[in-house]
Amino acid sequence: MREQTVKSGAINGHLFELKRRHPDLILAGAAPYILYVDDAFYCTSESRHAADDEIKALQ
Predict the structure, then answer these.
(1) How many CA atoms are closer than 13 Å to the CA of 5, on its beta-carbon side?
(2) pLDDT digits (tens, 9 = 90+) for 2-25
């Protein structure tokens, strides 16, 4: 498994899913969090707090 879902839900009719990358990818320099909206890539984030801010911005 390369990613693990840590948070998911719906905001304003859009489905979102926040995933955390596998530790091996993080050690290789990849951003730890990936946000998908409506099953499409939206952005990456260096911290859970920043990812939560991106989710709030969808409102």
Answers:
(1) 8
(2) 899 999 999 999 999 999 999 888
**DSSP-assigned beta bridge partners for residue 14:** 11
The answer to whether residues 44 and 54 touch, using CB atoms and an 8 Å cutoff, is: no
29-33, long-range: CB within 8 Å, 24+ apart, which pairs? 33/6
Distances in Å between the Cα of 33 and the Cα atoms of 13, 38, 52, 58 are 22, 17, 10, 17
pTM above threshold 0.85:
yes
CA gap 33, 25 in Å, rounded: 11
Residue whose C-alpha is closest to residue 42's, from 13, 22, 19: 19
Element (H, E) at 23: helix 23-27
